[in-house]
Each structure stands twice: as structure tokens, then as C-alpha cells.
């Protein structure tokens, strides 16, 4: 499960947050399948990583902690000799509930993980990312989704941040903001979505991971993109799902 020592060589090295489950796990698996050396982070301790966790370095870290960004940046600097070619900030949190049911602590957690931590990480990683690519994983819910206003707001903020950063860092670091549609992850199950709906209508994490990596590695297309059903072989069903679903 471990890549030991300092990573050097091919330029196929990626830092990935939220790597221990859901879309992040699928991204880690696909990155390794494509020959990347991966530095993954996640909330789960080593002992609780899934059996299919790929062969990569892993740092357990809670993005709600004030020292998370500098810890990750310092770990990355120790692990990678030279510039970091790719960083994918994928970690996210959210709940399907109306604003009236949210608590102050829950709202703060979602905003910290989905927005604040990404801003802090981008800042901390900037020197290491020179000449590389920063991928910010948002959600199509950034457009606004009833029943999940705090989650939608956090992704909307991330979208605006990514757009600004793409201009600010143009010519030094390539920034791409990618917004996947509904993905069949634990978040959808916790929201009470029927299993048959998730299986038949939501995007598979692996299919989304493949598409996201294709977009991140491509020099074509805009810096801000929505990954829809049609683009991973399904159908454009987002508007038909009341309240929508993030990842």
C-alpha cells in the first residue's frame, strides 16, 4: 500500500485529497492505473482504509483542523523531489437538508471542507505547483439546489475562487474547476435516495474519475467545465432529479 522514499521521475505524480472513499477512491484507483504515483489524504486512519485502496502513499488528515493545509504541504514537500505536476483537491462534505435543519457547527464544517480548506491548500501548494495543474472538484449543485443550500453555496464559492485563480495564475499554474453531476457515492445513500435510483440514474465513481482525469490532462477546453451524464455515456438527467444530488 505504500510508495516509500522520495517520488521523482516521470512527472506523473499527483496529490489527491479525499482519497479514502467515494469519488476520491475512484480517482486514486484510476490515477494508479494510469501510472501515477499518488499522495492521497483523507479522514480515515490507515487501519480503516478499504480493501481496494490502491498502492499509494497516504496521510490521514482532517481538513477541519487549522493546521491541515500546512501539514499536507509539508508532507508533499518531503515526498516529492522537485515540482508537483498535479494536485486534485477533491475532498468534500455535504448533507441533503433544508436550511432550517442545519446547525451552525454543521454549516461551518461544510464550508470549511468544501471551500476554506481548498483556498488554504491552493495557497500552501502554490510554490510546489509551478508549471503544474491544480484541479478543483466542485459539483453541478454549484448552480443552486433546493434542499441542500449550504452545500450548493460552498460549491458556488469554490467555482468563483477557481475562476479567479485561473486568471491570477495563468502562465504559471493551470487551474481547472470541474463540476461532476450526481455520483453514486455514500453521500447519496445517506441522503435516503433509493438504491435502485442510485444504481440506474447516478454516475458511477469510476466513470466520472476517468472523465475528470481526461479533462485535467487535456490542454483543450475551458478552465471551468461541467461533467454531465452525456459526457460519461449516460443521459442528461440532472434537471429531472428533484433537489439534485452532489457527490
From TrEMBL:
Q: Oxidoreductase among the record's keywords?
A: yes
Q: Which UniProt keywords apply?
A: Oxidoreductase
GO MF entries: oxidoreductase activity
The cross-references to InterPro entries, in alphabetical order and at most eight, read:
KR_dom, NAD(P)-bd_dom_sf, SDR_fam
Gene3D superfamilies in the record: NAD(P)-binding Rossmann-like Domain
Ketoreductase domain span: 12-197
CDD domains registered for this protein in UniProt: SDR_c (cd05233)
**Any one annotated GO CC term:** membrane
Its family remark reads: Belongs to the short-chain dehydrogenases/reductases (SDR) family.
The identity of this protein, by name, is 3-oxoacyl-[acyl-carrier protein] reductase
Q: Look up and give the organism this protein is from.
A: Roseinatronobacter thiooxidans
Amino acid at each position: 500500500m505504500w510508495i516509500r522514499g522520495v517520488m521523482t521521475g516521470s512527472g506523473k505524480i499527483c496529490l489527491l485529497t479525499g482519497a479514502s472513499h467515494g469519488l476520491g477512491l475512484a480517482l486514486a484507483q484510476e490515477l494508479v492505473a494510469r501510472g501515477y504515483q499518488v499522495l492521497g489524504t483523507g479522514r480515515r486512519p490507515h487501519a480503516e482504509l478499504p480493501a481496494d485502496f490502491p498502492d499509494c502513499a497516504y496521510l490521514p488528515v482532517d481538513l477541519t483542523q487549522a493546521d491541515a493545509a500546512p501539514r499536507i504541504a509539508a508532507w508533499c514537500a518531503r515526498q516529492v523531489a522537485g515540482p508537483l505536476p498535479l494536485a486534485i483537491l477533491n475532498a468534500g462534505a455535504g448533507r441533503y437538508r433544508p436550511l432550517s435543519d442545519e446547525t451552525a457547527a454543521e454549516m461551518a464544517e461544510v464550508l470549511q471542507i468544501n471551500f476554506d480548506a481548498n483556498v488554504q491548500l491552493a495557497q500552501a501548494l502554490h510554490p510546489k505547483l509551478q508549471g503544474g495543474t491544480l484541479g478543483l472538484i466542485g459539483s453541478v449543485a454549484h448552480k443552486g439546489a433546493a434542499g441542500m443550500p449550504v452545500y450548493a453555496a460552498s460549491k458556488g464559492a469554490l467555482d468563483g475562487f477557481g475562476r479567479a485563480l485561473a486568471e491570477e495564475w495563468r502562465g504559471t499554474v493551470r487551474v481547472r474547476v470541474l463540476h461532476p453531476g450526481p455520483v453514486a457515492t455514500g453521500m447519496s445513500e445517506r441522503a435516503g435516495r433509493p438504491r435502485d435510483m442510485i444504481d440506474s440514474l447516478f454516475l458511477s465513481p469510476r466513470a466520472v474519475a476517468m472523465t475528470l482525469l481526461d479533462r485535467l490532462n487535456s490542454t483543450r477546453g475551458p478552465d471551468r467545465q461541467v461533467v454531465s451524464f452525456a459526457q460519461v455515456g449516460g443521459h442528461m438527467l440532472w434537471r429531472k432529479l428533484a433537489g439534485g444530488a452532489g457527490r
